[in-house]
Amino acid sequence: MVRCIFNDEKCIMPASTLLEGEYGERDVYVGVPCLIGKNGIEQVMELPLTEEEKAQFHACCEDVRRNIKTAEGIPAAE
Predict the structure, then answer these.
(1) Residue 17, pLDDT score
(2) If you average pLDDT over every residue of the chain, what do you get?
(3) Terminus-to-terminus CA distance in the chain, angstroms?
(4) Which residues is 40 bridged to in the sheet?
(5) pTM, 2 dp
(6) Residue 4 burial (CB < 10 Å; 0-12/13-18/19+)?
(7) Where are the chain's structural domains?
(8) CB within 8 A of 67, min separation 6: which ones?
């Protein structure tokens, strides 16, 4: 990843980044395919997902949110 940044290689590789509407998610940091260049993560690459894959991805994002709340000592919603 560092090589891609230093050499502005424009590589596509997985990276954890803040989603701002990509894949229908907001305000969560998760690993997704990203275009990496001299500016770091330059673009989130949205791949086509089946409905089942979308549901699994959204469930994973909810797990991340829940784990963050647990780590911060915030009780999970029942």
Answers:
(1) 97
(2) 94
(3) 40
(4) 37
(5) 0.82
(6) buried
(7) 2-71
(8) none
Phi and psi at 46, nearest 5°, equal: -90, 115
**Which residues have C-beta within 8 Å of that of residue 37, sequence separation ≥ 6?**
4, 5, 8, 9, 10, 11
CATH number of 2-71: 3.90.110.10
Rounded to whole angstroms, how far apart are CA atoms 55 and 33? Answer: 18
State residue 55 phi and psi, 5-degree precision.
-65, -40
Residue with tokens 């330059």: 42
Spans in the chain with pLDDT lower than 70? 76-78
Q: What is the three-class DSSP state of 21? A: coil
